[in-house]
């Protein structure tokens, strides 16, 4: 991908053609969507880094200015899950950014969406949704205001209900296949998942 594209009206470079076709194969995005993603990613970078947007990393604070994430209760988790940063700082490369947009897209499969939703809900990253994860999940969805916060008893009951419904092997946690099983039985998952992604 050495060939830097022609300057786009003087504002940074275009995506090299061979990179574009590779990204099309690896994501659920069309050529147009990839080019738009590149433009959006570049515009979030400091001016001096825009020429080399393909090798730049975008800090989490800039990613969170995106309208899709600004009001998202899982915004930090989303950055954590899609970021390949070794520092674990939630920063994203252009490819991380594309992965995120690809999973958000309408053309992504339910399997892929549910896989990422599971990782987003797995707050401690241990590969299972336990009571603590479920509690954080409910808090994210109900908001942190005093008036919307559930009482301890209500929270306990809700988590109990979720586990009874979903924990097939009765080990007290929900694993990925159990989660995907629930999702496959919920036709409205994809539309409610729009809130998450």
Describe this structure in words.
This protein is mostly helical and 197 residues long. The chain folds into 2 domains: 18-104, EF-hand (Recoverin, domain 1, Orthogonal Bundle); 110-193, Recoverin, domain 1 (Orthogonal Bundle), CATH 1.10.238. The protein is built from 11 helices and 2 strands, in the order ααβαααβαααααα. It has helices at 17-26, 31-44, 60-63, 67-70, 75-82, 94-104, 110-121, 131-142, 152-166, 176-184, 189-196, and strands at residues 57-58, 92-93. A two-stranded antiparallel ribbon has the order 1-2. It is globular, with a radius of gyration of 19 Å. The relative contact order is 0.10. Residues 1-12 have low confidence and may be disordered.
Short recap of the structure:
It is built from eleven helices and two strands. With 197 residues, the protein is an all-alpha fold. Residues 1-12 have low confidence and may be disordered.
What key attributes describe this structure?
Recoverin, domain 1, 2 strands, 2 domains, two-stranded antiparallel ribbon, metal-binding, calcium, 197 residues, 54% helix, magnesium, 2% strand, 11 helices, calcium ion binding, EF_Hand_1_Ca_BS, single chain, mainly alpha
Q: In percent, how much strand structure appears in the residues?
A: under 5%
The poorly predicted ranges are 1-12
Determine and state the CATH class of the largest domain: Mainly Alpha
- Helical stretch tally: 11
**How far is the first residue's CA from the last residue's CA?**
30 Å
The largest sheet is: 2 strands, antiparallel
> What name does the CATH topology of the largest domain carry?
Recoverin, domain 1
